[in-house]
Design brief:
- By secondary structure, the protein is mainly alpha-helical.
- It starts with a helix and ends in a 9-residue tail after the last helix.
- It is built from four helices and no strands.
- The longest helix is centred in the N-terminal third of the chain and has 29 residues.
- Helix 2 packs antiparallel against helix 4.
- The mean pLDDT is 88.
Length: 97
């Protein structure tokens, strides 16, 4: 299989995962408060990444860790706005704007 076809298949896979994520996020905020959902989502992701990437993570210096935390906080703020949009909107597409 050529690398072009592999890249296209990976792009389709990522697109499908993103679509499922939107639908699952909509269902999740119907069951729990949006910010609790985001907190649990980020806690689970951080735990998984800390376990999987513990060796590279241990090699980071304090400055790199600080920068990573700042980027993570900005990303969390953006994701929280997105989830609040999904929560307050009538359908999932409204959360995109």
């Amino acid at each position: 299989m050529s690398s072009s076809i592999k890249a296209d298949l990976m792009l389709v896979g990522v697109t499908l995962l993103a679509a499922v994520s939107w639908i699952m996020s909509r269902e999740a905020v119907l069951l729990m408060p949006p910010l609790l959902f985001m907190a649990l989502r980020f806690l689970l992701a951080a735990t998984l990444l800390a376990i999987v990437g513990r060796k590279p993570l241990a090699q980071l210096d304090a400055r790199a860790l600080w920068r990573s935390m700042v980027v993570g906080l900005v990303f969390a703020a953006g994701m929280s706005c997105w989830v609040m949009g999904i929560f307050t909107g009538k359908h999932v597409g409204e959360g995109a704007f």
